[in-house]
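User: Hi! I'm working on a homework problem where we have to compare a predicted structure to a textbook description. Could you give me the structure for the chain below?
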Amino acid sequence: MLIRDEEGDELPDLEAARALALNTLREMMRLPHIYGQPREWKRNVFVITNEAGTVLAEVPYDALL
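Assistant: Happy to help. Predicted C-alpha cells:
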C-alpha cells in the first residue's frame, strides 16, 4: 500500500532526502504502538520523488532492521 505525502519536504539534495527517510524510520521504530512492529515492515520502502513525481531513489525499511 502506498501512503503518499502530498505536502512533502523541500530538501537540498538526494542525500538529505535519504537521511530524512532514515530518521523517519527511526522515529517509527520508537512508536510500534502506532506504526506496528518493525518485523512486519520488511517489504516496505520509502520512495523518494521530485516535484514532478519522478522516482529518484528507494530506501528500504530493512536498511535499519
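For your comparison, note the following. The mean pLDDT is 90. The helical segments are 14-29, 32-35. Good luck with the assignment!
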